[in-house]
């Protein structure tokens, strides 16, 4: 797939720190994985908001390995890099649910040995046998959420209720709207607004979605997955299509920014951890997954990074205010309107063709 998106790369290497507050010590089990001749570095390829200094230094403290974290802004960027041969240094990658299926089909992932995992039973039941990866053969869930609209309640006192709000208020919102730089999410939102599935394989339906988006394009400031955050905080944007994980973080910084899941439905996604076949540090990869699976670590990640944990034992450690945050953990009534993205096979060419036309 042609890489049409700007690749954002950040490098972070942190030295060992002592974190005595961590109740579970990876050092207790690391001897099962880390041999004396193992490499002392672990390369992770992840989303921008999924790692921080504390997480990386916790791992370094427990294993002696330094972590080098590169970030990407879309699944397609990540896949394109791997297929171009640029992913040989990574032992851990964080694809979204539908991308796991594509990577398995392309033979890019190893089957995870559950005997080497500690804490898999800590997951909520719905994450133990997901439709995109039965029995978690190739992936371990890390974060889940929805896609929706984040808006400035001062600039837009009447809350948007559905995707159609963007079209109904196009003139007022001109150049103060951003949509994600993601073909399936953006086309899917338009499809859902029109009453179709996010995963439509009907070209006439996809064309209708394209025509709707084409009519909105003059009002769109950018197709952007990350840079919109500073702009909406500065007041330069009125509304942005975004992932709930980003929305929760931004609303913490400015409570006047509100997140809504459109009433016609949106996408429900899970971002996961996988081990690519080309990994150079398999022992470090398993040690990383075991760290993430621990309840106290899962709870700390949820609190620090404002992401929705799939770890039930970790969820139970969270303060009640976080457990009841509906942006992090939406009620079933809203989730029932959402739909998971799934691979569409060769029909993906249709999505890509209309997406290219939209961007150009």
Quick take:
With 360 residues, the chain is α/β, with parallel strands linked by helices. The protein has helices at 53-63, 75-83, 97-105, 165-168, 183-193, 203-216, 228-233, 244-253, 282-293, 295-305, 312-315, 320-323, 332-335, 348-359; strands at residues 41-47, 66-72, 92-93, 140-152, 177-179, 220-223, 239-243, 257-260, 268-273.
What is the arithmetic mean of pLDDT? 88
> What's the overall geometry?
globular
Derived structural class: alpha/beta
Strand count: 9
Please outline the major beta sheet: 6 strands, mixed
| Residue fraction in strands | 5-15%
Order of helices and strands: EHEHEHEHEHHEHEHEEHHHHHH
Kindly state the percentage of residues in helix: 25-40%
Separation, N- and C-terminal Cα atoms: 17 Å
Number of helices: 14
Rg over alpha carbons: 20 Å
Unreliable residue stretches: 1-38
